[in-house]
Amino acid sequence: MIPLVRPLSASVAGIDPVRVRSRGRRRIAATFAGALAVAGALAWALAGQRDEFATALGSAPVWVLALAAALQVLALVSRSEAWFASVKAAGGTVSRRRLHRAAGTGNLASVVNVQLGAAARIAVLRRTAPADSPRVPALIAAEVPILTVEATLAAAASFTLVGPLGLPWWLPLIFLATAAALIAGLGRLSLCRRRECWRGLAVLRSLHGRNRVVSLVLVAVFAQILRNWLMLHAVGVDASVLDATAVLIAMVVIGQLPVGPSVGAAAVVVILGANGVALTAAAGVLLTVTGTAGALCFAAWAALDGLRSTVPQLSVPPAPAVPTAVASPLLVRS
Fold first, then answer.
1. CA 220, 222, 224, 230 torsion: positive or negative?
2. pLDDT in tens, 220-273
3. CB < 8 Å & 24+ apart, contacts of 50-58
4. C-alpha to C-alpha distance for 201 and 325, rounded to whole angstroms
5. Exposed, middle or buried: residue 274 (CB in 10 Å: 0-12, 13-18, 19+)?
6. How many domains does the chain divide into?
7. Rounded Cα gap, residues 278 and 322, in angstroms
8. Does residue 273 lie within any of the structural domains?
9. Is position 183 within any domain?
């Protein structure tokens, strides 16, 4: 895991905390180095086009940037709700608000590294709700159904990469077959109750649970595609919805590498660099900015909601009881 998991979650998972911190430091150092390398490559590619790049950055209207940040918040909340469904199916009794607070706080780490974000969400949830959340192995497995749906959608839309990257036409078919085999295998594993980690796949046992996760992930994915399309058009790139989808797939794939916040610019330049490096790099930078702004908004809500829940509420003393008059027997007889 990573240093955010600290001794609490590390001890629960049976992992040496010293090794956890050492591995986390190496991962952060690799991400920092990768981000610098990508930023340097983009700076070299933009040599002589800095004015066009600056003009493209300033051409995006403020309301479009705000809408893009709001779409990122929608994507994060929808994905967190899918995680809530998966955690509840795994036996967790944590409340929806507390889980969303953990997700909002941990999502900030995703700006640096995707794996870092997943580990941070799990660590925060285990720290804030140790008795109401499943153990770490089950929480890790609870991410798998969401990742599988995302991978399946990416495989279904991988044909959008054939043109920009010059891939063979049959490669998306292999991706789809792999995704189908993965879904079938996870369906069988979800029926296994012998090991703690397989409890995280319990949401796949019911049709309602599967449909709920798929629907929520679809909302998150479509929100991100729309955000990509908005940012591309805001800087003047004539891109279609399929182009925005290809950019999202590239962002997910490149995001697995230690490149940090440079993933947005790198993905857009790789997919649509033929339309102009300056414009596509500017769109990628704006994607990173609006994505970070959305994550900060979600994290700010999580922090404020957490503070509100810890502030002791003033208890209002009960009103003194008013004595009721007892009717006199003489009055009753009269």
1. negative
2. 999 999 999 999 999 999 899 999 999 999 999 988 887 778 888 889 999 998
3. 52/276, 52/278, 52/279, 53/278, 53/281, 53/282, 56/235, 56/236, 56/278, 56/279, 56/282, 56/283, 57/235, 57/282, 57/285, 57/286
4. 64
5. exposed
6. 1
7. 78
8. yes
9. no
Q: pLDDT of 44-69, one tens digit each?
A: 877 778 888 889 888 899 999 999 99
Query: Are the C-beta atoms of residues 127 and 79 closer than 8 Å to each other?
Result: no
Q: Quick check: is 206 in a domain?
A: no
Could you give the CA distance from residue 180 to residue 159 in angstroms, rounded to a whole number?
A: 16
66 CB-near residues (< 8 Å, 6+ apart): none
3-class state of residue 84 by DSSP? helix
Residue 26 lies in a domain: yes
* Torsion over CA: 162, 167, 170, 172 (sign): negative
Q: What are the backbone dihedrals phi and psi of residue 195, each rounded to the nearest 5 degrees, phi first?
A: -115, 145
How confident is the model over 92-132, as pLDDT tens digits?
999 999 999 999 988 888 887 788 888 889 999 999 999 99
Give the range of the structural domain holding residue 31, as residue numbers without chain letter: 3-142+216-303
8-state DSSP, 198: G
